[in-house]
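Data card: per-record layout.
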Amino acid sequence: MSSIDPISMATQLATYEVQPFQQRFQTQADKYQSQISAYGKIETALRTFRSAVEDMNGLNDSVVKNGATFSQEGNISASVNASALAGEYQVFVEQIATSHQMGVDLGAGTTADSAIPAAGSMVISMDGNTMTLDLATVDTDSDGTATLQELAAAINNDENNPGVNASLVRANGETHFMLSGKETGVANTVSVSVTGTGDANFENAFANSTDISTPKDAVIWLGAEGTGLKLTNSSNTFEGVIDGVDLTVSKAQTSGDQPIGITVGSDKEATKEQLNKMVDAYNALMSEIDKYTKVGSKDEKRGVLAGDGTIRSLENQISSIFRQSYNGQSLYSVGVSIDRNGKLAIDNDKFEAAQATDPAALNEMFNGTDQLFDSLEATVKPYLSFSDGVFTSRKDSLQQNISRIDDKMSNLERKYQMSYDRYLAQFTQMNQLMTQMNQTSGLFAF
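The structure for this 446-residue chain is written out next.
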């Protein structure tokens, strides 16, 4: 009678008891994990779609783009919003706005480490705002000496700084102290006075500062110089001078020059680029949804989220928004539609015709309050909240299912170990008996 292997026998029988349950639990866990992954992929595509919508629905952005061209480059640029009406305009740039810069000559041999008075005060004002600096507080490294470098730093870091930048400039071997207004225009003229220092030369140097750059307002003429409408502005950007158009001047013309022609109209390429962002993001989202919700066939594997009500509801809500009418007009009438494959498509000829006819109305369809983009953002928001969004909740629920399966698998491991120990003991005892019987039977052998 041959002996048996107790370990092999115990392993086989214990495995046989738990293996069907392990396989079933692992299949369930794999399914849940695949669903979590699928939700993650669709969520990422939805976030990309929402970002595309938000990028076209911001305070300074829209799907419809207008632009401006100039008869002469280098003097003016323009920011044109979707409400701007097409038209021809003329502008003459008489003067650009400049900021105030003043230099202070503190004498030969002055360096960044030159000492300044450690008493008195410096008052700097600009456009009705004033800061008062106590010169006794300028010495920040506590070495007993306040320096020009520390003075510049104290001005720049003062919480009451009215909009002035202090700096040290070397010219012709000498160091000069300079104050510069951060904003342009006459209203932003910088004034400075120093008193109570006990150092007349230091105080007089600031009292007799030299203007490096005189503050000026920008001056333009809508129309020809001298006969058009004259406009002044402290900034080089004239907002809304032409309805829907902000003009920024960068270089003055010479008196007697012809005014610069400005043509405002549709920017078809920029608009098409905006539309393509939306189309690409929408179609990528729908492709991800289709990938994981397909019902399957003999030639195609069933999607892990096939029949999932959450995803189907999301798809239906978004697609239905594109089939609605806005301000009494359907998106299809302006060239935006969903084709037979469920993908978003643009008829460029229709869209360009709508843009040329009434760009403001077209823009309102997309960017108006509670119109297309607002409706899309409101629809996807509940799905994407990181704390309590639909996707987060679904993934958390599936993860909890996996955790419960992990607990069951742990219980099976304990059951396996108990069965293994029991079988090992039984087969070990059986093996010992068989060995004894073999030895006994050998005594009777002839």
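Known properties of this structure: The chain has a mean pLDDT of 90. The first strand starts at residue 66 and ends at 70.

See the next section for split statistics.
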